[in-house]
């Protein structure tokens, strides 16, 4: 019987090795997926520009402040923190949050996310001023979104109006373009402030070029935010990918796979040379290399000390911060 069990375990591990990536399975319900889901929904509902995974320099501490989402519409913007919590959530006497019975099967305590998000907005505003954009008073507002349907809030009235639960999120409805959404009026804005078009363009340029987390998009609409480290594989494949470095490349796309007889399958990798003078490379500027499908990309996820490996055959694209 033990021989059968051992053989079964070996077959299972081999099956996972060839057909699945452990790292892909781990990120199936990751915080990054929830973050992009929220960003996509808000963009569809209210339009404007949505910036995800920002790392804004904080002059006071000399570190970078992580900001989940910034949504900018005409004359207003909101800094959004996404908390992908599950279980039962309550507010303690000191204002901190306590989450019990979640996916991690332990009690989590969080400093008041609304206070933290307001701090992020202040740091972002200072950063914009340093880059030459002075915004009207009340231009920024803050929201904390709880997108997980498996979360239940205890004594919902204890939570501030800046907190948006899953039920509230799914009930939001888009408004005609000529009408500003009532949700934006009440939640996304701290008073109506018109902004000159030139200021809006400058703001878009700054947020587009601001530091962000590197972004790995996987098949199945999965995402990982973190820091790209390197590639791993056969020497000839590593040499072919040597030009894909953040100083030279802004984006990499896996185009297609081909099979040559009984040899290894290969992937066509397109990459866009970084050009600070334009908004992006044209189709004619994209370059192409061919590598084995077993080649891996090494990335250290946000808020993790672990280096993860992802097979390029499971990757859709990789975007690199400057």
UniProtKB/TrEMBL annotation:
InterPro entries: NERD (IPR011528). Coiled coil: none annotated. Pfam families: NERD (PF08378). Residues 30-147 form the NERD domain. PANTHER family: SI:ZFOS-911D5.4. This is NERD domain-containing protein. It comes from Carpinus fangiana. The lineage of its organism: Eukaryota, Viridiplantae, Streptophyta, Embryophyta, Tracheophyta.
